Amino acid sequence: MQGKIINYFLNFKIPKMTQYAENENTSIPLGKEGLIAKISEGARSLNSETVFSIGDDAAVCDFSQSGKTIVSSDIFAEGIHFDLTYTPLKHLGYKVVIAGISDIYAMNAKPVQITVSLAVSNKVMQAHILEFYEGVHAACKEYNTDLIGGDLTTSKKGISIAVTAIGRAQEDELVYRSGAKPTDLICVTGDLGGAYMGLQLLEREKTIFNSNPEAQPELSGYDYILKRQLKPECPADLRDYFKKKDIKPTSMTDISNGLASEILSLCNASKMGCEIFQERIPVAEDTAKMAKEFNIDPVIAALNGGEDYELLFTIKLSDYEKIKNNDMFSVIGSVNALDKGRNIVMKDGSIITLEPSVNNQNFQNVQ
Amino acid sequence: MQGKIINYFLNFKIPKMTQYAENENTSIPLGKEGLIAKISEGARSLNSETVFSIGDDAAVCDFSQSGKTIVSSDIFAEGIHFDLTYTPLKHLGYKVVIAGISDIYAMNAKPVQITVSLAVSNKVMQAHILEFYEGVHAACKEYNTDLIGGDLTTSKKGISIAVTAIGRAQEDELVYRSGAKPTDLICVTGDLGGAYMGLQLLEREKTIFNSNPEAQPELSGYDYILKRQLKPECPADLRDYFKKKDIKPTSMTDISNGLASEILSLCNASKMGCEIFQERIPVAEDTAKMAKEFNIDPVIAALNGGEDYELLFTIKLSDYEKIKNNDMFSVIGSVNALDKGRNIVMKDGSIITLEPSVNNQNFQNVQ
Q: Which of A117, B66, B195, B281 has its CA at a distance of 20 to 30 angstroms from the CA of residue B155?
């Protein structure tokens, strides 16, 4: 499945990507309204919440039967959150939707709608804008989310993207960051650090490419980490799993920054401490392999990398029996009283205090 | 009132503004989370729809008793939509909220919530970010709208701002662009072209300032058009007026681009033609005076300028008796069958075909 998606969807050609910055004489033959009409052709309105979608001053929605409505906004800037040298616009479109709905899943809610706005310099051609929205449509389809609006405008330089994701949940389903209690188990879905190692690989190949634009990137065999970076997914099934097992997490957030920052964010909101075990932090084999090649400790990639879009949550210790053989998430530690600190127990038994990544402190973070 | 607002709020000092681009060694002492906490102190949650505001992965809202929910997103880029040389950040914050909720009023709905996201280069200081959100809070307060979220991140260069406004309306109140019928009266609130002439004035003073940074701008006596450009407002009372008079517009949109583009947009959506009378297009005295100084026909400023944030709507001819002495809006023409074209009757009796402004065709438009 993974390989298939990459072959079909990645179409990974670094040289092609640089055209975005070189083309000085572009135009939008369809005009703004024509372009919006073209984009809206690919938009779906399958959720009953969507009454009127793209095509007027605003979208019209009906949440009267939908319990609580969850709203989250993100903004992404070229050169900070993405690099068009190696990020095909279709992937970028896919990824910003994932980043948006990830915040909805982080509340234990279900995404239903999204708006995606784009400010592009006039170096970007109409075909590229449509390519971007193809990726948006693909992610919306995958996660049953309606594209209900957005904006399309010019920028002086570079691309800015803004996303507002809207979801629904019953009040008693909602999970905030603030509910963790001592002895709760700390869990993460999937595996971590892959997106970060994919980024390192792409950055390395970009450097080689920049010094010799004829060189083809060395990417074969790195499918998994490339997919983690260029076509991330959300653990959408977790919500159903909780329902089936009759579990309600006590706190939850998504792992869009590094695991360290996210754990601290849960601990801060819950006013708790924690103990994490290094050896339990899930890292995929391909991630570890790449980390070794770069001389990076894979755990550092998991703790300080970003963009994994997995979920971090806590559940009551008494729920352990229900979850112990699951294959969706790992228990990586437990919640402590605040005065016990926020620590990682390393494999050698040493204890390290959890710190937010330097990047996050300066809010230069990815996502 | 107008003069008072300017004295209190504008604080118009061009030299001060250029500091944004000159300061290379800025920092965010509060950190991202501290800054968000500081911003959220100024945020209000007065509408019953807001259950949980800033501080988690997403906001939680309750629209179960609110009829239909209206959603609109906008994105703004430095150098295209605003120029920090002469736009104080507080004003910018105010203005992007107005631009956002203007789309909600354009559906004949009431704004209730907004998210405002900001991507700023590290040349922008913490104090400037807080200033921007002061303006956001001021507009939210003025229009009884809750700031429920947003994003704060870095950009490579310049500022990008994204806004998602959320409103409510009963289904039978909603007005789309598409309902205009022949003989309907075409109306606009307030007056037009003022924001555009304010922009021309500021651009002129910027040129003088750039050639001689010691020169103080010549802005006295131009309060009205400066306010139109730097602190626009929405005709929020129109909705109540319609209710009181038992009028339902047949179509409506906001005038964020020039009047010409917006009329064409209504006509296209409604598949109609129209006849507009030049002499009925409302232009304020100060706007006309400035236009004369610039050798611009004031009607051109109204037709092709932008950012007036007035409302353009059509009502049934049979409602004319109800509205004829109103002081909120002007009747500027009427709807025709499609085959009669979209025309302006000039003062001298000549007829001109309505065209979208060149800017809008290339979507370089302001808003």
A: B195
